[in-house]
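ARCHIVE CARD
CATEGORY: sequence design from structure
SOURCE FIELD: tokenized fold
FIELD CONTENT:
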């Protein structure tokens, strides 16, 4: 293959981008010391609005339900907690840690209006919040 081959160039660019993404991921999701107060990561969220309600799903696999706190603050909901790392004193060697661990927090600005938390559930690693729209 020649160096000026477009397929080779595209392949090299793709590999370089993947390496950069992996380095960036390692920088973002580092295990913090247990005394750290700042959140180490933010969970992904889906927010869907219907005519009379607002539904929020937060993906939290591996997080015990008792470690999750939900606070409604004006026009925002704050979800925080802690996912314990799988590392124990008996751990011999870590081969790969790609899942973020430690303290998390996610602040979600709600659409304009007034809301009341009507339901919440925690199943299959997902926190589901249902807000009723107040008039």
């Amino acid at each position: 293959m020649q160096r000026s081959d477009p397929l080779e160039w595209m392949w090299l660019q793709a590999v370089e981008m993947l390496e950069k993404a992996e380095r960036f991921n390692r920088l973002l999701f580092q295990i913090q010391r247990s005394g750290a107060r700042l959140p180490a990561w933010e969970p992904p969220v889906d927010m869907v609005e219907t005519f009379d309600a607002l539904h929020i799903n937060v993906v939290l696999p591996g997080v015990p339900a008792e470690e999750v706190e939900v606070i409604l603050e004006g026009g925002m909901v704050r979800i925080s907690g802690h996912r314990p790392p799988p590392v124990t004193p008996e751990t011999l060697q870590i081969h790969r840690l790609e899942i973020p661990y430690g303290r998390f927090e996610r602040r979600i600005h709600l659409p304009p209006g007034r809301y009341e938390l009507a339901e919440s559930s925690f199943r299959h690693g997902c926190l589901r919040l249902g807000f009723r729209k107040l008039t």
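CARD ANNOTATION: The first strand starts at residue 45 and ends at 49. The chain is about 15% helix and 40% strand.
SHELF: design records, drawer C
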